[in-house]
Write a structure and sequence with these properties.
The complex is a heterodimer. By secondary structure, chain A is an alpha+beta fold. In chain A, about 30% of the residues lie in helices and about 40% in strands. Chain A has five helices and ten strands. Chain A has a five-stranded antiparallel beta sheet with strand order 2-3-1-4-10, with helices on both faces. The longest helix of chain A is centred in the C-terminal third of the chain and has 15 residues, at about 125-140. Chain A is elongated. Chain B is an alpha/beta fold. Chain B contains 23 helices and 19 strands. Chain B is globular and about 75 Å long. Chain B starts with a strand and ends in a 35-residue tail after the last strand. The chains are: A alpha+beta, B alpha/beta. Chains A and B meet through helix 1 and helix 2 of A and loops of B. The complex binds thiamine diphosphate. Thiamine diphosphate binds near residues 392, 394, 419, 472 and 477 of chain B. Thiamine diphosphate binds next to helix 17, helix 19 and helix 21 of chain B.
């Protein structure tokens, strides 16, 4: 599989998004989506990056990313042990068929005018995709998606691992297939 | 704490970081800093072009191992530093560049001499800063020196807004630097060291593939121990010339596009490459998929991202090379004590190649001067304590091939970026860092015309370097490719530089001694005349044959198996050799 999701903790410093974007563009790595926002620690932001790595090893990408001075830790978010969600906001023609689809998918009508429904949905990529497939024939007028965010299941947190083991970077060897880079 | 302005805080911070010299040119945005620089114990050398300041910082760093420093104003001053920053970053040279920026309120308004130098240099530096608050200056400087000089060294830029230099602040230099996202691994994993030793003890055809990292890590003595303990033959890349003595019987020379037949072939036929601070650059590997097809790879590097970047590593040794080798030497001894394969057949083979295919060149039939001969003689006459800085082109390859390097930090060149114009300012920086050494720039007539104005800086600041202009009246390396791959159609490679410019007169105009040599019989005399001058820079215009070519050669993008020793001439092997 060439699609990988990385959770990346970065110092909340100016230019850090540009550094990450510049690295990806320079080394020819394709980003499917990138979501960035604050975390429980005001000094740290978290990026969730979905990569389409045709022809590049995940480990190499993580190692390059980890070289950025402002990158504190990286972990691959595997489907099997993480929660992954996307947000969809979409404007569709206000018809009873549209409302049925919204109900069926447990989506929410966030705004309604006589002609348009603004629909909100939160879910896994596949669920969002299937909702969109059903909505499409109703006439999608505008849509916006958040990009994926991901959180590991269970007790462990990425920040625990990353910030508690400062100074003991846990570099992977050349043939490991997972990316787990912590400072 | 007493109040000072940001500029004074900057200078205090540079002093606290141990800076003894910096190279630069003032201008509006950096001007506040130049006032306290006037009173500082730091020597400031006023260059003639910021590119010269950057390469001088690089040459200084390469010759001394210390961090080189350059300083420039905003906008064009800063953008003139982009080439040397990229150059230093590619060759992992520790330099710090300080640039002035327009006042913080003007940033983003396309103000006079505004350039987003932090944005511009992001992809060509290890890290960079934009400082708009004077209280951040000491910390940024401390971090910049720490980042530039630790881990895999590199270039760091600190851009400081003019008002941050002017505002009042207090000076507080952090004596330790702690960065959440930057903690280079310096000790290799002990299991990996054991695995590497085990591979070495199994290998029948090993080669030590030595890169510039050995010099950066000051690990030449440890490399020598490993070579002695194992008896394994050594190749040194363009960045590693001097890491292992050329005169040593285990040395096969330089690998790569213009490497020796023995070095290139030994890598191709090896069953194990012990890769030390090298990065499988395309100029070494040739067509990657055909490189060293039967070799297992031990890859020791301080940069985890080098592992597996170009070639899969069977054993990765991530750490400082000095530490790695200190662990690997005893581990290898232990492993070899259990089982030591007989390397004799392999050594006979590789040393046979070295004997059969030595580096060489033809003397021009028309009696003109051979460029290789000039370079060889400079090396012989000046000796192994000399520091050589080369430009980029044929003369660079010949300087790597025909000068014997015995010590680290005696060969400086632009390996990764291949920056024409590197030699003169780098030699200047090297001479400033190592004032007692003889410093020769081996330059091409093309390269020399890019940055020779720094000879004015040398003349005025008592920096008596020596420059050999290998004047073949052309952009020789490009011309060589046109000869070989473009049907001798010499599009825009003729410089007509036999007398325009007149390099002897140009040298004299810049306050240097100008000499010229036009016949083979005068080569030694002229070099000796140049050696005798120590109170001023000297430039020697060596008029050489223009059709000389660099051999051996592996054409770009082809396999190392297709090495040629002369035009369309593969080495003639004995049948059992391949
Ligand atoms: C700044 C820059 N521009 C262009 C090149 C491409 N280039 C590589 S070698 C070379 C010719 C160098 O000519 P010269 O300095 O006379 O050296 P020679 O090869 O003749 O020894 C050129 C143009 C380069 N390496 N760097």
């Amino acid at each position: 599989m060439a699609i990988h999701t990385l959770a990346v903790l970065v110092e909340n410093s100016p230019g850090v998004l540009a550094r990450v974007a510049s690295l990806f563009s320079r080394r020819g790595y394709n980003i499917d989506s990138l979501a960035v926002g604050p975390t429980e620690n005001p000094k740290v932001s978290r990026m969730t990056i979905v990569l389409n790595l045709e022809g590049h090893a995940l480990d190499q990408v993580s190692a390059q990313l980890f070289k950025l001075v402002n990158v504190i830790g990286i972990s691959e978010m595997k489907d099997s042990d993480s929660l992954k969600r996307e947000i969809l906001l979409v404007k569709v023609a206000n018809t009873s068929a549209t409302k049925d689809i919204v109900k069926k998918h447990n989506a929410v009508i966030a705004d309604e005018s006589t002609t348009t429904l603004s629909i909100e949905a939160v879910g896994q990529s596949a669920a969002i995709e299937s909702l969109l497939n059903e909505l499409r024939p109703q006439g999608i007028r505008e849509l916006v998606q958040s990009g994926l965010v991901a959180l590991e299941r269970g007790d462990k947190t990425l920040a625990d691992r990353t910030l508690s083991t400062m100074g003991t970077a846990n570099e992977s060897d050349s043939n490991s297939s997972t990316a787990d880079y912590q400072n | 704490m007493s109040k000072i302005n940001g500029a004074q805080s900057l200078v205090n911070a540079l002093e606290a970081a141990g800076v003894e010299v910096m190279f630069g040119i003032p201008g509006g945005a950096i001007l506040p800093a130049y006032d306290p620089i006037f009173d500082s114990k730091i020597r400031h050398i006023l260059v003639r072009h910021e590119q010269g300041a950057g390469h001088a910082a690089t040459g200084y760093a390469q010759a001394t191992g210390r961090v080189g420093v350059c300083i420039a104003t905003s906008g064009p001053g800063a953008t003139n530093l982009v080439t040397p920053l990229a150059d230093a970053q590619m060759d992992s040279v520790p330099i710090v560049a300080i640039t002035g920026q327009v006042p913080s309120l003007a940033i983003g308004t396309d103000a006079f001499q505004e350039a987003d130098i932090r944005g511009v240099t992001m992809p060509v530096t290890k890290h960079n800063y934009l400082i708009t608050d004077p209280k951040d200056i000491p910390r940024a400087i401390a971090e910049a020196f720490h980042i530039a000089s630790t881990g895999r060294p590199g270039a760091v830029l600190v851009d400081i807004a003019k008002d941050a230099l002017q505002k009042e602040t207090t000076f507080d230099y952090p004596h330790t630097v702690s960065l959440a996202g930057y903690n280079p691994v310096i000790e290799p994993k002990i299991e990996a060291v054991r695995d590497a030793a085990a591979l070495i003890a199994q290998s029948k055809k090993p080669v030590l593939y030595v890169g510039g990292g050995v010099i950066k890590a000051e690990a030449a003595a440890e490399l020598m121990q490993l070579a002695q303990v194992t008896g394994i033959p050594v190749v040194t890349t363009l960045m590693a010339r001097g890491a292992f003595p050329d005169s040593h019987q285990q040395h096969l020379g330089m690998p790569g596009m213009h490497g020796t037949v023995a070095a290139v072939t030994a890598l191709q036929k090896a069953d194990l490459l012990i890769t030390l601070g090298a990065r499988f650059d395309d100029r070494v590997t040739g067509k990657l998929s055909t490189f060293a097809p039967n070799a297992k790879i031990i890859h020791a590097d301080i940069d985890p991202a080098e592992i597996g970047k170009n070639r899969h590593a069977d054993v990765a040794l991530i750490g400082d090379l000095k530490n790695t080798l200190r662990a690997l030497v005893p581990a290898t001894k232990v492993a070899l004590a259990k089982s030591a394969p007989d390397l004799t057949p392999w050594l006979n083979e590789v040393y046979g190649w070295r004997k059969k295919f030595p580096l060489g060149y033809d003397k021009p039939a028309d009696g003109s001067v051979s460029p290789q001969y000039v370079i060889e003689r400079i090396g012989k006459i000046s000796g192994p304590d000399t520091i050589f800085a080369a430009g980029v082109g044929q003369h660079q390859m010949w300087a790597s091939q025909f000068i014997g390097y015995e010590k680290p930090r005696t060969w400086l060149n632009s390996g990764g970026l291949g920056t024409m114009g590197y030699a003169v300012p780098a030699a200047m920086g090297a001479k400033v860092g190592a004032p007692d050494a003889t410093v020769w720039a081996i330059d091409g007539d093309g390269c020399f015309q890019m940055t020779n104005q720094e000879l004015v800086t040398c003349a005025l600041n008592n920096i008596p370097i020596k420059v050999a202009v290998i004047n073949n009246e052309s952009l020789g390396m490009v011309r060589q490719w046109q000869t070989l791959f473009y049907n001798q159609r010499y599009s825009n490679t003729d410089l007509h530089s036999k007398r325009i410019p007149d390099f002897k007169l140009l040298a004299e105009a810049m306050g240097c001694v100008g000499l010229r040599c036009e016949t083979p019989g005068d080569v030694d005399k002229t070099i000796e005349a140049a050696m005798a001058i120590n109170d001023r820079p000297v430039v020697v215009d060596f008029n050489v044959h223009r059709d000389a070519m660099v051999w051996p050669m592996v054409a770009a993008g082809t396999s190392n198996d297709e090495i040629t020793v002369a035009r369309s001439m593969a080495p003639v092997w004995d049948s059992q050799e391949l």
